[in-house]
Design brief:
Layout lengths: L10 H18 L2 H25 L5 H5 L7 E4 L5 E5 L3 E2 L9 H11 L11 H13 L13 H11 L5 H17 L2 H11 L6 E2 L1 H9 L8 H8 L14 H17 L5 H9 L13 H5 L3 H14 L16 E4 L3 H19 L9 E2 L6 H8 L8 E10 L2 E5 L5 E5 L22 E8 L2 E5 L5 E7 L6 E5 L24 H10 L7 E4 L2 E6 L3 E5 L8 E4 H6 L3 H11 L1 H10 L20 H12 L10 E5 L5 E4 L31 H17 L13 E6 L6 E6 L4 E7 L12 H16 L15 E5 L6 E3 L10 E5 L15 H8 L8 H13 L5
Parallel strand pairs: 1-5, 3-4, 23-25
Antiparallel strand pairs: 1-2, 5-18, 6-10, 7-8, 7-10, 8-9, 10-11, 12-13, 12-22, 14-17, 15-16, 18-19, 20-21, 21-22, 23-24
């Protein structure tokens, strides 16, 4: 039998409802209950009003869950070594488990003792904060907030630092949302990663580095306690200005840690007795970063900003907050060799010219050290320092440094002459002069920053990766990068591309070209222009190879004239050197280019004419490790295979276009080996490895160059004044620029494998006499004239020696006119004669 539920009309239910209504009436008949109900209603109504006014438009918890703190962009060298970072906020993000428990206890004791028990707000502390706000209103003092760690996260991440009751109300609402969305461990992880602790350090790991030069896991108890003092106001507990205040606040944190049971009394006493132990602010930057803070990093920074933007507003991958991981092509050892070689070359050139004067002047009264630090004088070498003359008396001067220390500069340490005057530099030193000095014994000696400058680039000719770059004496002195931004005339270092065009249009290394007077008619107004060799003389008829080795201007313009300047400038454009008008003067390097462009063109020669795009960034990853940019976009089948079958490793396919015929490129490289062996760069001959290259000296001379290298490393260097003026008649590429390359190569190539330049398929070696062009031995190819690499006639000991005399073609070349006056029929006649004599096609 199933019982039915009572209906509302049943006597029993009606009686119970009447009894309940009577009980409620009796309760509310009491006055204090009515007041309590009214107060609760007002609270509920007030809460609803506050929610409508302040909480409805607060950031959602989804935004908090998706929050990613600003992180620096980290750069690595070609071998993966961390070398640099770009950041406005120095921060290293850690997981909760990576924070030492003692560090967590210290921050909880200092900031939020009830963190693990409250729901987002510590009500007594909150009420005290409200009371202080109203009691201090109008006094100019700021009330202590009484904020929990959760509230601090709400303020710092989502609300900002506005000082008002409105923000406090919003902070409370948002704290409740955060507590409902995140675990306590997640909240602490956010807090310890984003809190600002001074010295541009955000988060405890970055602060541990900034104040103690350690990771958080290596901190001692007193060091941990000091970091926990900083969230309130880092500047108030600065170890430099407020050490006593910092020790007092640290003692408070240690006392709270003991009261909360985190440390013992003995641990507290030992920690309180320890000194602060912080390191100087100037030491907070890693040595590696200071080491690579130069032209290469600035070029990478510009490229990244151009690609991803600078700040958060630019997008999630911004340079200063996106947390990118960038693999650069910089080779630290090669970069060091490049910097040293170029700086030493600049100083060598300036040697004997005397002291160039003070770099700047500052007021030595008051905080002179701070003023000296802002001068930012680039002194280049690690053992040179910027100093200011503080006093001068008799034969000694007192100099001061940016760290506040001082030293002595005796008169003998500044005995170099004052440039352009002749008296010693010491006589011209004045109080307030900012100078460069170097330690020598217990004293300091004067040094001069070179006025001349230059640039150097080192490239991998197989990939186009820029391994090193130096754009001047020191990037701190001037950010202008002469390796990429300075447009300079390459002079004779451009000539190989004139001869490449000639080789592509019928000439060979054995072609006879007259080294004699050459003039062209320009216009009725300008008349005739006559060219001349650097030395002023001429050598008569010689082979093309000899003309390149000896850098003969007359032979170059004659070859350019016969080939056609339109073809020459087309070759220069195809090799990425520049886009020039078809004027003969450009065949001698009158067109402007950069070290980077010309070095890349030489690297393409070493790469058998295949196009190269110079790159400084290999790839970029976002903060989660996903590759978002790769310089080498070639597909590589099987490169990511899990299992290797033992066969040859997979490699990306070569897709680069041919910017120059590979046989022509190899011919040019082979000729340029002769420049090192017998030409204008013989200073490099004793390096003991196959090298090619070309010196260059522009009119004036205003620029001196050397570009070249080995099969695996190509470098280019130039020297010149920023405002072009004469370097002096003795300055040439072979005497000023080539020695810089030699110093570089002695270090950078020391442990490199010695390999020859690789010839493309079809090349055949034929030995000739390099002066007459006569074949000594070797069979000529009958199909493609470019297949014959013309090898100079220096016979091994096993060959019988015999005299090589000029043949009839040489005598004919001396008699016949050349250049524009030479007829096509005459040139064809010479070609026919060569063929009939078994010459070179």
């Amino acid at each position: 039998m199933v019982e039915s539920s009572p209906s509302l009309d049943s006597p029993s239910l009606r009686q119970r409802l009447i009894a309940l209504r009577e009980a409620v009436r009796k309760i509310f008949a009491r006055r204090w209950v009515r007041w309590l109900a009214a107060f609760a209603g007002l609270l509920l109504f007030g809460w609803l009003i506050l929610w409508l006014l302040f909480a409805r438009d607060l950031p959602s918890t989804d935004r908090l869950l998706a929050y990613e703190p600003p992180l620096p962009t980290n750069l690595r060298a070609i071998d993966g070594t961390p070398i640099y970072s770009f950041a406005r906020e120095r921060r290293v993000e850690l997981a909760y488990d990576e924070f030492p428990p003692q560090l967590i206890h210290a921050f909880l004791s200092a900031e939020d003792k009830t963190f693990f028990t409250h729901g987002g707000i510590d009500y007594p502390a909150f009420a005290n904060g409200v009371f202080e706000y109203f009691t201090k209103m109008g006094s100019g003092e700021r009330a202590r907030g009484g904020s929990t760690i959760t509230q601090q996260i709400a303020k710092n991440l989502l609300l900002g630092d506005e000082y008002s009751p409105t923000r406090k109300i919003k902070e409370a609402f948002l704290a409740f949302r955060i507590e409902n969305a995140l675990t306590k461990q997640q909240i602490l992880e956010l807090y310890l990663n984003q809190i600002f602790l001074g010295r541009n350090a955000y988060g405890v790991q970055s602060a541990a580095r900034a104040y103690f030069g350690k990771d958080v896991g290596d901190l001692t108890l007193p060091e941990i306690a000091y970091l926990a003092t900083l969230p309130k106001a880092p500047s108030n507990y600065s170890p430099e200005r407020h050490a006593d205040r910092a020790l007092t606040r640290r003692a408070y944190v240690l006392r709270e840690m003991q009261n909360n049971g985190y440390i013992s009394a003995a641990q507290r006493a030992e920690a309180e007795a320890a000194p602060l132990g912080t390191i100087r602010r100037s030491d907070t930057r890693r040595d590696a970063e200071r080491r690579y803070d130069g032209y290469f990093m600035e070029e990478v920074r510009r490229e990244l900003i151009g690609r991803y933007g600078e700040t958060d507003a630019s997008g999630p991958h911004s340079v200063y907050s996106g947390g990118l991981w960038v693999r650069t092509s910089l080779d630290p050892a090669v970069q060091k060799a490049t910097e040293d070689a170029l700086r030493d070359g600049l100083v060598r050139y300036e040697a004997g010219r005397g002291w160039s004067g003070a770099a700047a002047r500052i007021d030595t009264r008051g905080d002179w050290a701070q003023r000296l630090a802002t001068v930012n004088l680039g002194v280049g070498y690690d053992d040179w320092r910027a100093a200011v003359v503080l006093a001068k008396q008799g034969e000694r001067a007192e100099v001061g440094f940016a760290d506040g220390s001082t030293g002595a500069l005796p008169s003998w340490g500044a005995a170099m002459p004052r440039r352009g005057i002749g008296d010693t530099a010491f006589q011209y030193l004045k109080v307030g002069d900012v100078i460069a000095v170097k330690k020598q014994g217990a004293d300091w000696v004067l040094r001069t920053i070179p006025n001349v400058s230059g640039g150097m680039v080192v490239e991998n000719p197989h990939t186009g990766q820029i391994l090193a770059m130096q754009g001047g004496f020191d990037a701190r002195g001037a950010s202008f990068n002469r390796a990429t931004q300075a447009m300079r005339q390459p002079g004779s270092s451009f000539k190989p591309f004139v001869y490449a065009a000639a080789l592509d249009n019928g000439m060979t290394p054995a072609s006879i070209i007259v080294d004699g007077p050459f003039c062209v008619y320009q216009s009725a107004l300008l008349g005739r222009k006559c060219f001349r060799n650097f030395s002023g003389g001429n050598a008569g008829s010689q082979t093309l190879r000899w003309g390149v080795e000896q850098s003969r201007n007359l032979m170059t313009v004659r070859a350019a004239s016969q080939t056609g300047m339109k073809k020459v400038v087309a070759t220069a454009k195809a090799m990425g050197i520049g886009d020039y008008p078809p004027l003969l003067a450009y065949s001698l390097g009158a067109g402007e280019t950069t070290v980077l462009k010309l070095t890349n063109a030489y690297a393409m020669l070493a790469n058998n004419g295949r196009e190269l795009k110079p790159t400084m960034i290999d790839y970029v990853q976002d903060r989660h490790g996903k590759v978002i940019f790769r310089a080498d976009t070639r597909p590589c089948e099987g490169c990511n295979a899990r299992d290797w079958n033992g066969r040859p490793m997979p490699r990306p396919r070569m897709r680069a276009r041919q910017a120059m015929d590979p046989m022509t490129a190899y011919q040019v490289v082979h000729i340029l080996e002769g420049v090192v062996q017998r030409g204008t760069a013989t200073i490099l001959r004793d390096l003991g490895r196959p090298l090619f290259g070309k010196t260059g000296t522009s009119t004036g001379p205003t620029n001196v160059w050397f570009v070249g290298g080995s099969a695996d490393l190509v470098a280019g260097v130039y020297l010149g004044y920023d405002q072009p003026r004469s370097l002096g008649g003795y300055a040439q590429g072979g005497t000023v620029a080539a020695p810089i390359f030699k110093q570089f190569a002695q270090v950078a190539m020391k442990d490199m494998e010695v390999v020859p330049f690789r010839a493309p398929p079809g090349i055949r070696m034929v030995r000739i006499d390099r002066r007459s062009g006569r074949r000594v031995f070797g069979a000529w190819p009958t199909s493609d004239p470019k297949a014959a690499v013309i090898w100079e006639a220096f016979k091994p000991e096993s060959e019988p020696r015999r005299t090589i005399r000029k043949d009839e073609i040489v005598r004919r070349a001396e008699r016949e006119p050349t250049g524009p006056a030479r007829s096509r029929a005459a040139r064809d006649s010479d070609s026919d004669f060569l063929q009939s004599q078994g010459g070179i096609y």
